[in-house]
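Table S2 (continued). Query chain:
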Amino acid sequence: MVEKKMNPIVKWAIILVFLFSIVLNIVLIGIITKSAPKCSAQRVQPLRDKHDQRSNVFADLTREEYLQVQRYMLKQKELDISTNQITKPSENFLFLIDLSLPKKTEALAYLDGKGSKPVREATVVVFYGARGSIREYVVGPLPKPTYHRDVTIERYKMELPINACTVTFGEYALFFKLIDDEVFSKLGKLMKESFDLSEDKHLNAFEQLPRGVRSGDRKTWVSFFRDMSGMYIHPVGFEVLVNHESVNASHWKVERLLYNGQYFDTVEELQQKYDAGSVKKIVYKKSDDYGSLKPRHKPLQIGPQQFYTEGKRYSISNNHVLYLDWSFAFGLSSLTGMRVFDVRFKGERIVYELSVQEAMSVYGSVTPGMILTKFLDSGTGIGRFAHELVRGVDCPYEATYVDTYRYIDTPVPVRFRNSICIFEHNMGQPLRRHFDYFLRQSYGGMVNSALVFRTITAIGNYDYMWDFIFYQSGSVEAKVHATGYISSSYMVDGSLAYGHQVADHVLGNIHTHFINFKVDVDVLGVKNVFQTKDMKYVNVSLPWMSDHYVMVPQLVEKQLKTEQEAALRYGTKTPRYLHIASNNTNRWGHQRSYRLQVFSFTGDHLPESQAEERAMSWARYKVAITKHKDSEQTSSSLYSQNNIWNPAVDFSKYIEDNESIENEDLVAWVTTGFLHIPHAEDIPNTVTVGNGGGVLLRPHNYFDEDPSIHSADGVYFGLGTEESCDYNRMACLAQETCSPVLEPFTYHGFDGVKMIEDWS
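Corresponding output:
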C-alpha cells in the first residue's frame, strides 16, 4: 500500500486558514460584545404611584437628630450622665437613643390626611450606676428637643434595677482586666502547657447568658476558645465564673473555675492541684484550622448574575419604597431590628406594622458555659449588629444598598454603610402557569418576580438573614434564615447526651431557635375579626344513590372571640387556616381577609415551671392575637436578658386580661423557628438551607380574582403564536440583549468595629 503525502503548500494553507478563522472569531466576539448596548439605568415604565413623605414619621433618626438629643441630655445637669464609652458601671451612662414610635391612632390620622403630623420624639435609655437603676425617657420635639419625660413606670409598670442593664464596653473593659489579673497572670504554667499561651498568644472569651440563676444575680460563666478563625468551634476546656453584681468593680471576684471537666473554688486551688499533678491535665495539641471560611480552592468562575435590562422597577425615597402595586415605609431599630410600616397594595393598607421582635435560643450541655444558656438577642440589640452587606454575596450585585445610623453603647452616632439592601428578584419558579394540551393547545404563565427587603445581623456566633418579600399576588412574607458558627463546648464525660461531636474534643450543643414577629394587620380598616378554617371528613350519601355512603372533606369555619381563645399554643392542634378578616365582602359574598401561614420547625418550648420562661412567654404560641394597644409595643425588651427572672415585659400578660377581639384593631404575634442538633456538616459554618422559618401573609377572598393576572409580567401564547412578542416578552429577549452597568465593588464593614482588645 502506497502512502499518499500531502503537498506542503496545501498543508500550510489549511493551517493558515484555520488560524485566521480563530482570530476572526475572536475579533467578531469582541466587536459584538463591545457593541452590545448598556442596559438602561432609567426605568422604562413609569412608577404606578408617587412617594409619600408622610412615611417619615417612621424614619430612623438621622445623625443630626441623634446629636441633638445627646446634646440636650448632656445639658440637663441634674441627670449627671456621661457619654464616655468606658464609663464605669458605678457611673451614669447614656446607653441608647432610638426613635420613639408615634401612637397608632395619631399616625393613621396623619397618613390618611385626617390629622396633623405626630410629634417626632426619641427614646433615651440611661444606666444610672450611681443610683442603682435604669430610666427611660422620651425626648422631643425633634429635631430641636426642649423637653424630656421619664416613661419607665408608664412603659413597664415597675422599676428597672441596674442589674437588668446590658453589659457595656466600660463594664467589659473592667471584666476582662479582672480575668487577666486574677486568672491568667496566676496560672502561667497551666496556660502555657495546656493552651500554649504566651505574650503574643491569648485565648478568646464567650460568655454564658443569663448571668446567674435568680433575680439579682450578675454572675457570668465565661468559656475560653483558641484564638483561631471561627473561635466558637475551638473550645479549650477552661471556664471561669465571675461575680460582678456590684457596680463597684473592686468588689468583683472569681467564684468558680472549670478545667477539663473538674471544678475548683479558687484560682489557688486549681494552681496547687495542677502543680501537684492531682488533676487530669489538658496537654496542648496544635489544632487544624477547620473553622476558616477561606475557600479551600480558588474560585475559577462567577456564578449566575441577575441584572435589570430596563431599569429598576422599584424606587426609594428616604425611607419610602414603591414597587409596582406595593408601597411601604421602613426602619431598622437598634433593639428589635428590621421593620416596615404602612404596607399598601394597590393603594389599600394591608399591614400597619411588620417587625422582628425577638430571637431566642435555649441550649443543652453538661458544662456551665452552655448548660444555663438562654439567649434573648434584643437584650444586646438585634438591629445593632446589622453591618455592611457584601455586594453579590449577601445580596445580588445590582441591589440597592441603604446606610443606617445607630446610637447604642457609643459616644457618637455610628454610620453603618450598606446595612440594608433592596432588590427585585426572580424567585426561581413561576408564580403561576398552565400548559393546555388537551383542548386549546396554549400556555399561560408568569415569572415570580418579587421585591426583597433584607438585612443581616451578626449577633455573636450566629448570623440571621431577615427578609420581607413582596409578591405580585398581593402576599407579603417575613422570613429568617440562620447561618454563622454553632456554639460548642469542650467534650467531657456525659457530653454526647447533648449533641454530636463535630471536631477533636468539640461538641456541637443541641439548641432551639425561636423567632417572634409582630404582624399588625389592618384589613380594610382597624375593625377586624379573627377566623379559623379547617376540614373534617363527613359521611354523606350520594345524591343519586342514597343507599351508598362516602367520606368527603367538609369546610369547618369558626370565629374566635377573645384573646385567650386566640392564643394558639405550640403542641396543640391548630387550625390550618388563620385569618384576620374584615366584615366587608368580596364579589362572591365572602369576608375579605388575609391569611397567616406559618412555616416552622421549632423545638419544644422551655417548660413554664422554669423561672426564666416568663421572659420568653411569647414562644408558647404559634400565633397569638391581641387587641392593639400602644402600651403593648413589643413582645420582649432590652432588659429581659439580664433580669430574665423578673422580666420588664412578660408577653403572657397581654393575654391574661382576655379582651374581646371582635371588631377590634388586631395584632398577630407569630413565633417560628427550628430545632438545631449540630452535626459534622455545620463545620465550618451552618448553612441557610433548611435552617429558618417565617410567616406568609396572603390574600384570602380579599380580591375577586388573583391580582397578578393584571401584571405585565404575564406570558401567553398558543399554537402558531409561539414567537409573537404581543403577550410574551421572552420571545424577543434575544433581540434586546444588553450588558449591565455595574457599580464597583467596595466594602467598609470593618470600619469602626470594636474588637475585644479595644475594650481594655
